[in-house]
């Protein structure tokens, strides 16, 4: 197991950013949360005027053995079909990625079936996790490999100039897995976390809650140990997502979190590499009930709330426009002095 050394935030850069923001041609604090975003980015990047040159979007795909328990409205082969669609540029995340001129990467770490051709990177560890209601989802080695692959694939993007990261996913069944992960880490009752996912019935919803509850009673994962939680009730793509987040945090690169699955991965990343959460902004508030519980646990507030619940990284990619606005503001606005504008009467 690696020790991930996440650097401390530069609190002095935050203070300097606040002082500089207060000199810009506007009433103090009048740009609200945009100013808070600037201050957060300043302490992440260590500069009072943070810049973001290039967004990177990395999507990890994998299947989940827990689908055997009838917890999804869609059949398992939809994971593969969605990856094919994404590889052809037809998914929502492709659209928003193009809008943001993002560097895009799609990585298979555990989809059932043969290797993909074309734009999908084949880093398959195994074909789906095991059914975690019956046995452990993964071996310890598989967890470590998934985290390492996520870490490596993020570094590939950073080498291409990416300095802000969105981490998305594809995987039928992964809201059930995320519910188990967040329940394990927070100690919450699964009934508070489990949602309707891709559109299950009320009967399936009750069943899904019971599946998660029974799995946690069966495995008794150690809430302090992200590796243990992933091994017992995790997902291959969620482990890879956590690895990518750890790579970003270790390199002082901001992470824009998406919805429930992304935030579950963030909870794991923070468990494995303390301080990783300091490099995360929360893009949006998902419709999934567990999302709010997960981001409150991490101490985050969403930038937007658009009733989205697709996943893939879509909410984070849309929110990036607002982050860009904050960065442009601090770098391009005039100060009272440079513009020759009179300041506030004392």
From TrEMBL:
Pfam families tied to this protein: DBI_PRT
Active site: 312
EC number in record: 2.4.2.21
GO molecular function: nicotinate-nucleotide-dimethylbenzimidazole phosphoribosyltransferase activity
SUPFAM superfamilies: Nicotinate mononucleotide:5,6-dimethylbenzimidazole phosphoribosyltransferase (CobT)
Catalytic activity as recorded in UniProt: 5,6-dimethylbenzimidazole + nicotinate beta-D-ribonucleotide = alpha-ribazole 5'-phosphate + nicotinate + H(+)
Annotated pathway: Nucleoside biosynthesis; alpha-ribazole biosynthesis; alpha-ribazole from 5,6-dimethylbenzimidazole: step 1/2
Enzyme class: transferase
GO biological process: cobalamin biosynthetic process
Keywords: Cobalamin biosynthesis, Glycosyltransferase, Transferase
Family to which this protein belongs: Belongs to the CobT family.
UniProt xrefs under NCBIfam families: cobT_DBIPRT (TIGR03160), PRK00105.1 (NF000996)
PANTHER family: NICOTINATE-NUCLEOTIDE--DIMETHYLBENZIMIDAZOLE PHOSPHORIBOSYLTRANSFERASE
Role summary: Catalyzes the synthesis of alpha-ribazole-5'-phosphate from nicotinate mononucleotide (NAMN) and 5,6-dimethylbenzimidazole (DMB).
Protein name: Nicotinate-nucleotide--dimethylbenzimidazole phosphoribosyltransferase
